[in-house]
Write a structure and sequence with these properties.
- The protein has a six-stranded parallel beta sheet with strand order 1-8-5-4-2-3, with helices on both faces.
- Strand 4, helix 6 and strand 5 form a beta-alpha-beta unit.
- It is α/β, with parallel strands linked by helices and 365 residues long.
- 53% of the residues lie in helices and 11% in strands.
- The chain contains 16 helices and eight strands.
């Protein structure tokens, strides 16, 4: 038996956890850079809780609210410059995957002079600002991962910074923040979490421990699928989705992701399709591809979701996500060429060829 697992982030989950655990933030530093988007942190109530906790600790702060969806390289260098200029010695990320991913890159760049040409090299020194992450969506699981995904215009895709340095020190999860989410965002982020959990089981790096976490997460998302369809989530279901999202982050922290993410990045970069929706649109075709060689694993995932076939999965995802306009053959060729050159392909349990990837695009769109 071979098992590898790492998750150094301290996780706390519960109502009012940020204010009640302010003492854990107090040890991170004297001045925080709060990294967030333009609206979500404030609308959810999370920003009020964070600033109240900082004031209680007599810690000063600067709000950097310039993070856009799918953050850019320029954005994180801008944030790092702000942290250095204002003397911020720790980072608090508040929001969904974009602010949390940006916060990790900012925490790294605030301590190290890394040229843009080396940003994705993985060759980093040993210093990074301490971080506390407070998610306001249930999808990315970035609060417990060592990854920061940024838009990479040079490669015409999204690319990951990956280093154990990027694990946040603390993750504080409060499902109350999910109440402010628009229904479409709740659906897309839940499917993102489902993608992480299922893809993790279908990587070459999966093991008994990560499969155990993935199994638990998939069951919790499956419990909420009906409510996601009708838009009537209960407080209990929001907690289950947030819990499952965290588990998904723990899974991909150790297993990584597969061809689904490699392909989905092109839909996001070129078509502006939300990340979770992009993954969901491709998931059924990916299962169908893998089922030819990995019947047992694919069947196990479908069973956990209460489904009997890949066709049922496709129907469920179509009901949740709708359909997008078909891709042209030229787009399929272009996106397949980009996808085949990503690390995700080699991490897939059965690595697809460029032709296989094109066929999955055609079957999905």
């Amino acid at each position: 038996m071979t098992i590898s697992y790492q998750m150094p982030t301290k996780v706390l989950m519960g109502h009012n956890v940020v204010r009640q655990s302010a003492d854990l933030i107090s040890v991170l530093g004297k001045k925080a850079l709060i990294v967030t988007g333009a609206r979500s942190a404030e609308a959810s109530g999370a920003l009020d809780d964070v600033t109240a906790a900082l004031k209680q600790n007599r810690q000063s702060y600067l709000i950097f609210n310039k993070v856009m969806s799918n953050p850019t390289i320029a954005c994180v260098y801008d944030g790092a410059d702000a942290a250095k200029k204002e003397g911020c010695d720790f980072v608090v990320a508040v929001g969904g995957g974009s602010p949390m991913d940006a916060a990790k890159a900012i925490a790294l760049l605030a301590c190290q002079d890394i040229p843009q040409s080396d940003l994705f090299s993985g060759r980093y020194g040993g210093t990074v600002l301490p971080m506390a992450h407070i998610p306001t969506t249930a999808g990315t699981g970035s609060e417990v991962t060592p990854y920061a995904i940024l838009t990479n215009d040079a490669a015409q895709t999204k690319t990951s910074l990956a280093s154990p340095l990027l694990f946040p020190n603390i993750a504080m999860l409060d499902a109350r923040y999910l109440k402010a989410l628009p229904h479409t965002v709740a659906v897309c982020t839940a499917i993102d979490a489902l993608s992480h959990l299922t893809e993790g089981m279908l990587t070459v790096r999966s093991n008994m421990m990560t499969d155990m976490l993935a199994t638990e997460g998939i069951k919790n998302i499956a419990y909420c699928l009906g409510a996601l369809k009708n838009g009537l989530l209960t407080d209990e279901q929001r907690e289950k989705l947030l819990y499952a999202s965290m588990l998904g982050g723990m899974v991909i922290s150790n297993c990584g992701t597969t061809a689904v993410h490699a392909m989905g990045y092109s839909l996001t970069y070129f078509k502006n399709v939300e990340h979770g929706r992009a993954n969901g649109l491709l998931l059924a075709a990916f299962f169908e591809f893998l089922q030819k060689n990995e019947v047992e694993k694919v069947s196990r995932i479908l069973e956990l979701m209460g489904l009997k076939s890949v066709d049922e999965l496709k129907k469920t995802l179509d009901e949740l996500l709708g359909k997008m306009d078909p891709l042209s053959e030229q787009e399929i060729v272009q996106y397949s060429r980009i996808s085949i050159n990503t690390k995700n392909i080699g991490n897939t349990l059965v690595p697809p060829t460029e032709r296989d990837i094109a066929d999955m695009f055609r079957a999905s769109l």
